[in-house]
Queue: 2 jobs
Job 1
Amino acid sequence: MVTTTQNFKTAAGSLANEPLLKVEDLKAYFFMDEGTVRAVDGVSFEVQPGKVIGIVGESGCGKSVTMKAILQILEPGAKIVNGKVTLRSRIRHGDPNSPEELVELTKLGRNSRAMRRIRGAEIALIPQEPMAAFSPVHTVGNQIMETILLHQDVSKKEARQIAIDVFRAVGISMPEQRIDSFSWQLSGGLRQRAIIAMALSCNPRLLIADEPTTAIDVTTQAQILKLLRKLQEERQTSIIFITHDLGVIAQMADDVVVMYLGMVMEKGPVRKIFKDAKHPYTQALLRSIPSVQSQSRVKLPTIAGSIAHPFNRPKGCPFHPRCTHFMRGVCDVSQPTLTQVDDDHFVSCFLYAEAGKAVPVMEITR
Amino acid sequence: MSRGIQTPEMKAENAAKTPLLEVRHLKKYFPIYKGMLRKLVNQVRAVDDVSFNVREGETLGLVGESGCGKTTVSRCILRAIEPSNGEILFREDNDQVTDLAKLDRAGLRRFRPQMQMIFQDPFGSLNPRMTIFEIISEPLYVNGMKSKTEREDHVSELLRLVGLRAEYMARYPHAFSGGQRQRIGIARALALNPRLVVADEPVSALDVSVQAQVLNLMLDLQQKLNLTYLFVAHDLSVVKHISDRVCVMYVGKIVEMAATAELFAVPRHPYTAALMMAVPVPDPSSRHIIQDLPGEVASPANPPSGCYFHPRCQYATEICSTKTPELREITPDHFVSCHRAEELNLAGIQETKGE
Amino acid sequence: MSTIDPKPLPSEGLQPINSIVAEAPASPLPLNEEPLITTQEEERISIASNWTLVWWRFRKNVLAVISTVVLFILILIVLVPDFFATMDPEATNARLAFIPVQSVNWLDEGKIKPWVPGVEGKRDPVTLKMLWTTDDTQKTYVKFFGKGFSYSVLGLIESNIHLVSSVDPEKEGQIYLLGTDRLGRDQWSRLAFATQISMTIGMISVVVSVVLGLLLGGISGYFGGWIDNIIQRLIELLQSLPTIPIWLALTAALPRTWSPEKVFFAITIILALRGWTTLGREVRGRFLSLREEDFVLAAELGGASQGRIIIKHMIPTFTSHIIATSTLAIPVMIVTETSLSFLGLGMRPPAISWGVMLQEAQNIQTLALAPWLLFPGLIVIVAVLAFNLVGDGLRDAADPYSH
């Protein structure tokens, strides 16, 4: 803590209006032999306390890289080149009454003490692959206890009790016995619950769930989604929920960020995104997915083409080669910026460009 | 039987009469050995007495969660996996019916061109060391089309048919995106003019924005070529979208089978209903519908007694834990394997009309 | 089924079918106009075969490319050692023993005219040791690609061209680029022949290993069952034998009376007998995993025969790996042969191999007096390093699809 005092603004009690996490113009690039991949290229969003923010996008959209950048766990070769990530941090862990301070995560070293404290204790990650998240040679309980002992000033016995309590909280029956099992002894659903228990063990205020239900079956997925909802409501944890599944987003998120090739296309409250999407990409995506509620054997409207390889991202708006509203000389020339279309609804598209930019605004058919 | 374009009525009439494929009491048990002497200790009942038929020109969706045996069924039909028991009856053009399960390798080769497969993984299913021409033309070559120009003409036609440019045939798979590779896989499957196409999760590895393209293409091709699809998938939305009839599997058995609209509107098996309720709907205004089914899918190595679903079923009674239900037709063309199918009134899914 | 249904496929474009289209949005591009490939560079990559991709990746690895050049030179020496030799490697002359390394001078009187100084030996009356002094006035001019003793290239073409030879035919055989040994034999020339023997043993034994490994591993992996069991147990047995004692025993058992050629082949076989096991296992594993690949199943469903599947689909997928693995196996064989020969158990004089040459450098006294006798050791290191670097480079480049 001592080393990073300069990064802390003095607590003024006025932080109540601040978002829990604020990401501003974040850029993370991969520098490779073959060239530079602009995996995340100017992403901004905010996470309000106690809210679920859904980040939706397809492969290569940079959703996972954004999260790794926030947690400063990018793989070697990738670097944050721009942007600011600010967290409302409780400094004294396990003491929610201690004053909050704003910490700029991007200014902390990736292996600094402060960053390590924040990971796990303030921001916890639920990874996609539950099998890979646990070591097969230690019991699940020992691994959770290790996390607890790392972040909290408790005895081993207390840590075990905390672990059993979170096991119970995530709906694992017989937690006293299950805690001593190995990850490979647990079924898929139980393993996913154990991962959530591990993430919750230090009472983080922000959970990052990176495609937490992609690898599991639909009935188990429903259980996990319900559990996350319940925990979120009980504990007022904020969740960043990353997925490519629009159904899951609709069921889980309060606010949605739609990403495409490293950029935010649209963001806003979930109802506006699903009922009143502004960006041609969001609109097309919503129309093109089959739903159990839609009619059978009817041709779906499609999005032409495929996602460009991140190496040769199109110039201008990354979506323009596939866009039905493509405007030659505009969309393929410059990049649109996020524009406010409603108090809480932002779109990055020239169709909604601010007045004075001499860009024709077209009628959007929905 | 003519394979020309049929009116929907004709098609329905024909379909009801002539199943193209009939699977009877199909079983696939994988043995589990233990110890030095490889003693047989148990068997995984991956497919446990499954019977259904696929009618000419229709799409039968085979849906279920992982481990339900849907992929094993599809591979047994193609004899990519040897079935342990049962009959796989295939009707040829001249109405001659053959049991594929009894054929040896040589006998099977005659039927290969009539049944083809579309794979899940667009990367693993194309040999990276062959050009697109080599990939698509291989089945043509090994089935007797030796002239290269003839094969080139055929391949360029096939490429056009699946929405790719003919010039692409000189390229290698690594130059294509997932969706394009899937089109190439479809072109290869169609090269021999098959009558039955088994599609094993053909869109689940694709990006959301590309899935619709491939589904539309499959619908298109079915119309044009009068194809019959056996569509295997875990995603109910996709299955509902493409299938005429749907067959729901749970732990190696069929629990319910009916026409798509009927199945989704009036499910008769509690598992089908629970499965439908578990699907997250892309509509934030109907959030309440996430309902969870307790517990997890039973192990096919050690299934519960009676009805395999009874430990998770909220409607289970005494009989469910003792007697295995039979798959029976409770209304015309609606098959259910549940003791209480008639008395239960299960909620289905309502279609939202229009947008 | 021997013919194709002649019925033409419908060839009209992908028009939406009205009967089932609910809503078809205006698409800016027809489906078949996907602009995935835009630049010429991408076009070039898109039609690049596996081997082209492997080469593109390999050539980025500078060390591997340099090592390839080194290997190329070594292989040239293997093919025509006589071309590199300056004199008969067997020619002994006790009076010319332990001549030190001659330095080559490139300039003579301001002109480029390479020469080596003459050497003159005097015996120390006390120690009886030969003391060699160079005499810069006794210049032996040398030229490249000049004429020397006659030899035949691979038994086909007669030639007398040498890399280095004396300008003056009278002075032929007075160039000792790497000095001489105990018996006054020219090290440079001997090294050329040793390179031939040692490298050939390494490469041939690897070739034999590869053949055995491919055959037995392939049978094991493709057919499985009892034959797989037998081959696997055999591999386990061979691998459980302690190598060095076995090699020692086997080579020691070779009759002393055998000709160098016979010994040469025996050693090659002995090395290969164990060498194939690793490769055999690898090939078996590849076959096992390839049998499960979707594209193999697709070929089978398309009606391809088993032979075609093996030759067209399975073997090409791991040829590059086999090449990389074999390249990495060669240096092991070379080092083994060198060690055995060094211990006097492998090749024996009059055969010349690196190990045989190094035998000369076995005692500390010779080392102190004639350190140039260690030069074959340096060549061993260079050769082993080169093979390893090329092998590593190939292995990394072998799977261009991993990225």
Job 2
Amino acid sequence: MLVLDRVGKVYPNGVHALERFSAEIRRAEIVAIIGGSGCGKSTLLRAIAGLDRATSGAVMLDGAAITAPHAKIGIIFQEPRLLPWLSVADNIGFGLSDLPAETRREKVARALARVGLMDKADAWPRELSGGQAQRVAIARALVPQPEVLLLDEPFSALDAFTRRDLQDHLLDLWTDTRPTLVLVTHDVDEAVVLADRVLVMRPRPGRLFEEIKVNLTRPRERNSPLFGSFKHHVLTALDRSLDRSVPDRDAKAGVGGSMWW
Amino acid sequence: MAMTVDLPAIERTDAITRRAPAGLARYVRPALGLLLPLAVALAWEMAVRFSLSSGRLVPPPTKVFATIDELARSGELGRHVAATLTRVAVGFGLGVVAGTLFGAISGYWALARRLIDPTIQALRAIPSIAWVPLFILWLGIFETSKIALIAVGVFFPVYLGVMGAILSVDRKIVEVGRIFRLSGPAMIRRILLPAVLPAYVVALRVGLGLGWMFVVAAEFMGASEGLGYLLIDGQQLGKPAQIVAAIVIFAVLGKATDWLLEIATAPWLRWQDAFGRHSGAP
């Protein structure tokens, strides 16, 4: 279980990026974090990844505090961030350097086949399209079999068709080992397609605003009325999160301690 | 069915037609660059042959090559080239080692950069030739002072290149290394070194160019052998053909060593998406 306990982040320049964000994320759960710009989504994800340290509160994975990058936590960034001097296969195997060469080769070959890029094993990253490069990034993050996979707006730089394709592909890959997925996005469609739970954040400072459970069976039909109603729900929550006149959950929780809706 | 059989065939002929002019162009394009100097040389040769000019101060190409041939036959050329090459090689080697070391320290370690970089930048502002009198007083008039001057000339571009390259390594790529929990040495070996390599090769080539520049200055300050000596000797004894011959040999050696450096480093830079390396610059 991934526990976020009142995580807060104040940057050295005094900006309160994140304030008392708490959540408990179960094993194999898919959680989408959505919110307007400046609401601390990426800050939160970087704190979970151990790339930045929270200034207050704690991130715990199975009881252990996360203060630095952890073997059980992988991340996929908005850009593929492939190493341009390594072939596609070597990029995927980047995190497996302590394994014997034979095992590594096998795992990489299996991962390549799994993301459908067998023929690109020896290609340079620059020879890939945007979608292919992000697939390689996904394979690279998944091949060490993390328990938690973080995704920071992973498909936002891609065109609509490729994005949809990769969302389905990600879900398909997820079924292999069922890691916990924490996905930061600004795409409502993406959140509802993927997540069991959508956490809506509100900006300045970034806080948790509302939590929406998406009780839809997978695979989800993007055109179904139920899907539409969940989308609508998330959208209205987003709208309200940007409206300053609406009181937020934390303020209430501070007084009464119970959820106000 | 016929379609699926036809398609690869079409692709193949397409690939061939695209490759064929590229193979021919490989020989034609560099030849284009030779056109202008060859035309000028030929024109000058003609001018001297038809007595439009005496060719005394500006010797015609045939005379220059005759001089080179003569120097080569007497064994003089080999001795001078060897002397100059040795100086450049040793000076370049020392300059590269020192420049890489200090550049790496300054680039990697912020405190060291604040401590030593201002001093190095101040020293860089001094024209390197200004060191010559001091080097002669300190190191004598023989090889040591010459090599020191060349090493100083090579040091600065290499230092700047290495430091700049390390400072400009993409933070996002470094984060990939952090996510996979690379140790300090592994981070250097697997992320920093390959990321820095393209800029390092450029710095080496600039350094080599300066090395060739400074070897002439070093040999002007009193040498009994070397291509710079041939230049001074030609000036003092009024042998313009020998001067031009030495200049031509400098050009050939400079280009050849630069080319060797490029060839030697090419295998590590195959991944680069450089403009002009593919079909970018026709």
